[in-house]
Amino acid sequence: MTIREIISGIRVVIDKGNPSDDSPFTNQYFYHLMKIYRGVLLNEKLKDPTYNYVLNLQTLECIELVATEKNECCEKLPSGCKWLKSKTKIPNTINDLIYKVYNDRGDAYTRIASESSKSFKRYGFGQTNDYKYLIKNGFLYVPDLNSPKWVKIEGLFYDDAAVKSLCGDICDLLDTEFPIDDRLLNNMYAMIYDKILKTYPYFINDNINDTMSEDATAKKN
């Protein structure tokens, strides 16, 4: 579902009927809550080893790689290799979950678990485990084994807007898909509704859409 569609569903619950044109809550506020509670729900679901999180994945398209200084990364590489890093920082992940990393050459990477120099033993020329990546200080690092220009990253990221802004220009963010499993939607609605009732316990529901009323009056006149 798109962000706009989900927000419309939230407004129906909050306004107890047709979404009101005079709602005190903006789309930006609802989207902010959606991102927060998506993260909360996924963090909880990821504790269940049987949960299939693939329906919640986001993709960072064409993350450009640039050369890096030797002292930026403490990991050792095979002789003759150098590190490349992402030109921009990678958005924060939910539960440190990155599903896939692969480059424009078709090579898939696996992750180095630590930032210790001891992990250089994991490298060896001519072996499939040459293709590893490291995330440090928010940047992604990969070895320059065959001069890749960019990488694509699939994972679970907290900030949906940050992910989409890295993937190119967006005409209208509200019309983009929100990366959440449909089975989690009702739980997210309930959490947002509960948040609003606790934060604004005395807000007045505007259950009459003034625009519709004005149109009806105009037609009579």
Keywords:
disordered C terminus, 221 residues, 7-stranded mixed beta barrel, elongated, single chain, alpha+beta, 2 domains
Q: Calculate Rg over CA atoms.
A: 23 Å
**H/E topology pattern:** HHEEEEEEEHHH
Strand line-up in the sheet with most strands: 1-2-6-5-4-3-7
Structural class: alpha+beta
Say how many strands there are: 7
Biggest sheet architecture: 7 strands, mixed, barrel
Total tally of structural domains? 2
Q: Average pLDDT, to the nearest integer?
A: 80
Shape: elongated
How many DSSP helices?
A: 5
Beginning-to-end CA distance, first to last residue: 40 Å
Task: Provide the β-strand percentage band.
Answer: 15-25%
Helix content: 25-40%
Unreliably modeled segments: 114-128, 204-221
How does this model look, in words?
The chain has 221 residues and is α+β, with helices and mostly antiparallel strands. It has 2 domains: 3-52 and 179-203, no CATH class; 58-166, no CATH class. Helix content is 29%, strand content 21%. It has 5 helices and 7 strands, in the order H-H-E-E-E-E-E-E-E-H-H-H. The protein has helices at residues 3-15, 27-45, 160-166, 185-199, 210-220, and strands at 58-67, 83-86, 93-103, 108-111, 132-136, 139-143, 150-157. Strands 1-2-6-5-4-3-7 form a 7-stranded mixed barrel. A hairpin with a 2-residue loop joins strand 5 (132-136) and strand 6. Helix 1 crosses helix 4 and helix 2 (27-45) packs across helix 4 (185-199). The longest helix has 19 residues, at 27-45. The radius of gyration is 23 Å and the shape is elongated. The two termini are 40 Å apart. Mean pLDDT is 80; it is low at 114-128 and 204-221.
